[in-house]
Amino acid sequence: MTPGSTRKDIEDTVAHAAGLAESALADAEGADFRTRWKGLVARGVWDAPAPDSGAGRLGPVTRAVATVEGIGKAGTAAGLCYAMASQRFGIQFPLLSVLGEDGPRRLGDTASGDVLLCHALTEEGGGSDPLSMSTRAELQEDGGYLLTGTKSFVTAAPVADVALVFARTAAERSPFALSAFLVDLRSPGVEQSAPFPKTALTEVPMGSITFHGVRLGPDRMVGEEGAGLGLLTLTTAWERALLLSYALGPMRRVLDRTVEWSATRQHFGRRMGASHIVAARVADMALALYRSRELVYRMAARLDAGERPRQL
């Protein structure tokens, strides 16, 4: 992170987002994922600079990272923090960079929380080989496409409204065989599964989406036919750079609670923090948080400065 005013602006944004998130969490206690999601987003936590501060000087990516950190610092469950980071950095930022001025219209009302996106790439048996996918989009006489296939292990699939779907538009194994589409999941022929059982990040549902001959207009394609692998590379670069921002807030919250506990908990007539072993563990936690924050915020700063995501 940059020293001086930028650090203060980041801290102001973290604190502001944490305050908004605490209010939203109190109102949505015990609610389902979509209710908690909408409660957070509707509070304006995304891209909301702290009032009466210089946080508005932060670049949009850095401000978004600070917002995600603040949401976690407020005590938001890790799964919901993960969903926020995945949505923001794995889908919205890269798509808006590709779609330009038309982006907000095509993505829908994500700013209010009414529209939730998901990234539908993975297929059972496909592993990390996107060119092995079997989901296909067949060109029709009217210029539209017929989408058929199943995507699995998709974050938020059971409750999402719009999916970024990667599908085969050419039969051969080629870098230009894939295309990307924004699919309204309320369309006829779309089947969203029930949530899969998970052992981690359980607060955000994961599932599959099956497309039974779903008709797509030509305007649903993102970019040109055959440009899907390029878009996938872009979304992956964004996600790999910033997805772990979801962990900063929970890490910080745990560290704060540990420091407080070490200072107040008495054992054998002295504070736990007086133990060199305990103090060393706390120091290790602080160093891990410091290194993680530096890495993520430096990535964000480079993106705000105009560096291409693939060059990070």
From TrEMBL:
Q: Is Oxidoreductase given among the entry's keywords?
A: yes
UniProt keyword terms in alphabetical order: FAD, Flavoprotein, Oxidoreductase
Which GO terms fall under molecular function for this chain's record? acyl-CoA dehydrogenase activity; flavin adenine dinucleotide binding
Acyl-CoA oxidase/dehydrogenase middle domain span: 118-214
Query: Which Gene3D superfamilies does the record associate with it?
Result: Acyl-CoA dehydrogenase/oxidase, N-terminal domain, Butyryl-CoA Dehydrogenase, subunit A, domain 2, Butyryl-CoA Dehydrogenase, subunit A, domain 3
PROSITE patterns attached to this UniProt entry? ACYL_COA_DH_1 (PS00072)
Annotated Acyl-CoA dehydrogenase/oxidase C-terminal domain residues:
226-309
Reply yes or no: does the keyword Translocase apply: no
List the cofactors.
FAD
Q: What does the similarity note say? A: Belongs to the acyl-CoA dehydrogenase family.
Q: Any idea what this protein is called?
A: Acyl-CoA dehydrogenase
Report the source organism.
Streptomyces sp. SID7499
Q: What is the lineage of its organism?
A: Bacteria, Bacillati, Actinomycetota, Actinomycetes, Kitasatosporales
